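Hello, quick one for you while I still have it in my head. A protein chain has come my way and I'm curious about its shape. I'm sending you its amino acid sequence along with the backbone structure tokens. I'd be grateful if you could look everything over and explain what you see. Here's the protein in full, and shout if anything looks odd to you:
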Amino acid sequence: MEAPWLWPSLFLLSLFFVFKWQRRSTKPKLLLPLTPSPPALPVVGHLHLLKHPIHQTLHGLSLKYGPIFSLRFGSLPVVVIESPALVEECFSGKNDAVFASRPFLLMGKHIGYNYNVLIAAPYGEHWRRLRKTCSLEIFSLHRLNLSVDARKEETKRLVRKLYKQSSENCSVKVDMKSFFSELAFNVLVKMVAGNRYCGEDFVEGRDFREIVHEVFKFAGAFYPADFVPLLRLIDYQGYEKRIKKLAMKTDAFFQGLIMDARRTDEREGTIVDHLLSQQESEPEFYSDQTIKGLIMVMLMAGIDTTSETMEWAMSLLLNHPEELSKAKSEIDIYIGRDRLIEESDLLKLSHLDNIIAETLRLYPAVPLLIPHMSSQDCVVAGFHVPRGTMLFANVWAIHRDPNLWENPTDFMPERFQSRDVDASRDFKFLPFGTGRRACPGMGLANRVVGLVLASLIQCFEWERISEEKVDMTEGGGLNMPKSKPLEAICRVRPFMHDLISG
């Protein structure tokens, strides 16, 4: 006699084996190898290997383990890539959306309003709305054209300040780092709020300029508390306490900008004014927190990166006076000697454009792209990459790869003269990143750097402070500052006196 439970049992058992077989057959990626990796220590993983400059340390590991390798920061898996093909596979191919998120670090939680600002927000509808707002309301061609006077006024102020110092002494030694930092700060804050916040006329913004540097100091380091849960629980070295205090300072500054704008009877056309007008029609999205987050990203991401790019460019020109002479001749030919250069003139200055591009190749403002995070398991270059892996793209290494660039460590602006093939499309020139999370402020950065450098070259003669070449050693940090700040000798070109003083 047949047992009544036999056939149902056999049926369920068959379903179980079919299910197990399907799971194995639909997950071939689990059979793929993991990326090569150096030996790790218990608990901390590879954090002990990270020495400044981080991008150079990672490149050293790449020379041993290949263009894609993995690390472990505490409990967090990390993958580093150093080739255009890998960048394309991660940021424009099948994995583009997979790597469009960000890791959940304490910086993004406290400074970034609980991961609600553009840089730190996870990929999704809120991030898409923020990105669209930045593209259309802050960095669009129309908005940049509306703020041209702010950049013109601050650049002219810088030129006149240098003129005053050099005309009294014929030639003067200039702390270029300080000049560029003050200029970048005032240009961006003036675009945002219509005021200057540091320099001779205003001193109340000096504290915030220090805050910007402090934020970059935090962002440019790898704190164990971000990666080892136990250390976060006990607040190792008081890291979270310090970052909360810094967040209060940044929030107070940005809230002050908003309150100042609200107290003004008439709109002045600044970015804060424009965003507050949007708040009137869409208060749900354009909350004070969203507005603070938008202007925070603009200032935090723009001040040090812009000023340091100008500092690297002037350092390179002082070490290569023949290129400085070419840039000067180009300006004299296309602009003349009877007027000061305008932002609209930059399109005529191809050699200056090449100088800026070559500066960004050798000294990208962010040598390691801001880290991405995989939102699901994926395959890169035939290797299995688990969900929740932090991804670093070493742009500095790609920009100096001898397989991609002729004489990669030499300063050769002419390499960008022939642009029949756009290097960014080949994923070998990525100073502003690539993919969905590429920097939306590229147009503004190029305008500021171009106008300032052109103005300084047009108005002054520049020399090194000694026969020795400028020290080009890289410092540590997210945005790769010079290890030794630039100083230079300048004097006014004879025919520029009336133009500058007028």
About this structure: The beta strands are 68-73, 76-81, 172-175, 372-373, 378-380, 383-385, 390-393, 460-463, 487-492. The domain at 27-501 is CATH 1.10.630.10 (Cytochrome p450). The CA atoms of residues 434 and 494 lie 44 Å apart. The mean pLDDT is 88.
